[in-house]
Amino acid sequence: MRYYSTRGQTEYSRAAETILKGIAPDGGLFVPADRIDPYTTNSLPSGNYQEIATAIYRLFLGDFSSAEIAHAVRSAYNRETFDHPLITPLKQLSDKLHVLELWHGPTYAFKDIALQVLPHLLNTAVQKSGDDSEVVILTATSGDTGKSALEGFRDVPGIKIIVYYPEKGVSEIQKMQMITQEGSNVTVIAVKGNFDDTQRGVKQIFNDQRLTAQLAEKGYRLSSANSINWGRLLPQVVYYFFAYRQLVEQQALQAGEKVNFVVPTGNFGNILAGYYARRLGLPINRLVCSANRNNVLSDFINSGLYDSRRNLQCSLSPSMDILISSNLERLLFELTGHDAERVNYWMRQLVDTGFYQVDRKTMTSLQELFWSDYADDEETLLSINETYRNYNYLIDPHTAVGKNVLDKYLHRERNHCPSVILSTASPFKFTGSTIRALFSKDRYKNITEFEMIKILARETGIPIPPNLAKLEEKPLRHRQMITPREMYNHLQNLLTQPGK
Ligand SMILES: *Cc1c(COP(=O)(O)O)cnc(C)c1O
């Protein structure tokens, strides 16, 4: 498979180079350029998670050898990295309602699935490029991505990772998860300021050509692990196939029957992987795009107008608080039959005016594949509560947004296909909201996050995930704090001082 850019101004590249570059030089996103041959019902990839992953990677990573793919899959998905033998187990709640648990990785959120394997793909890509420099991953994080990246990149040869987090802007648990991080190649630094200050500092480093050149001379190459890298999208295609496989094996449907996937959506990465799964022939009826009150995407899918001219609201599903969903650009490129000119025009409009309106034909094809609505915080809490009472199954607020929107879909469209909700985080990651949803307001007040975890486990009888249970006792390893203005010099010293 070759790749090229949604903006049409970049040469074809093979997978290794595509993953190494991350974003296309013309500012667009890389997409598969060659024909995608769909599977038929009888030829759908079979086996366990690892076997399905291997089959799908082979289609898209043509320049990786079988041994390289096998190594990446084995290193990413095993009993040490994931706490469930199926990696992404499917749970049945009722006749036509299923939940795909995507949070059995080291940090208990779905980003682990891609970030466990990306470092290995990246490492192989560097080796193939013939460039012997060491990759340095720089990440600014407002919460979950940083920890997930740290766990994925720790001790991967040939790669260093540096995570910057805003001192005021992550939760107590998130901070503890990061400052206790183990690994010989990891650095975690608190930045005085908020997420925007931190993010700006990282961007300035990336844009500084003098520093980049100086680092290149010392044998370092800067890179990011952000969610527009094709190497993060591809691993997510796998679990759609594995969910379907489990449905067939559990006799919840017959091979070939259609299913709905319900996806709590932020940057449009998870659901776009579902789109590619459908292109690969997986029998998907609708992709139900579930938004929180930052409902830019649901407005877009229903009207064809993408309008980011609104204030970002803080919701109970913070990983979905987003106004510009970057990965949508890939979908627009696909729906217009790879029309880079039109994509360029819309993306320029978005930057210049904050909105764009797609044509009727694009909107129709969008609505054939996707259905969308949103849930506010009240509805989110209600869905956590109802799901627990009706099915004795506890969900986190992101998954609850999905459940709420699925209810709306089934109510309005009267669709009879089975539905799979993609569960994107363990309820123990967002204990404040789950406790608020389950118990009366006055029952638990003024308690720390660590206490909440214990309460939730006691009240529900669900064991505390091991990495969270151990967290309080772990030694603190990263105590450094700098100002945004010091980020540049700090990095320069860290990488270029002798002995480091
Ligand atoms: C990142 C994230 C999402 C949103 O996924 P996208 O791929 O950005 O749409 C949803 N839920 C959780 C818990 C996440 O961490």
Describe the structure.
The chain is an alpha/beta fold. It has a domain at 90-108 and 231-470: Rossmann fold (3-Layer(aba) Sandwich). The chain is built from 20 helices and 15 strands. The strands form 4 sheets. A 6-stranded mixed sheet has the order 3-4-14-9-10-13, sandwiched between helices. A 5-stranded parallel sheet has the order 8-5-6-7-15, sandwiched between helices. A two-stranded antiparallel sheet has the order 1-2. A hairpin with a 2-residue loop joins strand 3 (90-94) and strand 4. Helix 2 packs across helix 9 and helix 4 (111-129) packs across helix 5. The longest helix has 20 residues, at 230-249. The chain is globular and about 65 Å long. Bound molecules: pyridoxal-5'-phosphate (PLP). Pyridoxal-5'-phosphate binds next to helix 10. Residues 109-111, 144, 227, 264-270, 319-320, 398, 424-425 line the site of pyridoxal-5'-phosphate.
Distinctive features:
alpha/beta, binds pyridoxal-5'-phosphate, 15 strands, Rossmann fold, 500 residues, six-stranded mixed beta sheet
Shape call? globular
Low-confidence stretches: none
List the ions, cofactors and other small molecules found in this model.
Answer: pyridoxal-5'-phosphate
Q: Would you report the number of β strands?
A: 15
The total of helices stands at 20
CATH fold topology of the domain at 90-108 and 231-470: Rossmann fold
Strand order of the largest sheet: 3-4-14-9-10-13
CATH class of the domain at 90-108 and 231-470: Alpha Beta
Mean pLDDT across all amino acids: 94
Beginning-to-end CA distance, first to last residue? 39 Å
Structural class: alpha/beta
Question: How much β-strand is present in the residues?
Answer: 5-15%
**What is the rounded Rg?**
22 Å
Main sheet attributes: strand count, strand direction, barrel closure: 6 strands, mixed
Quickly give the CATH architecture of the domain at 90-108 and 231-470.
3-Layer(aba) Sandwich
Helix content: 40-55%
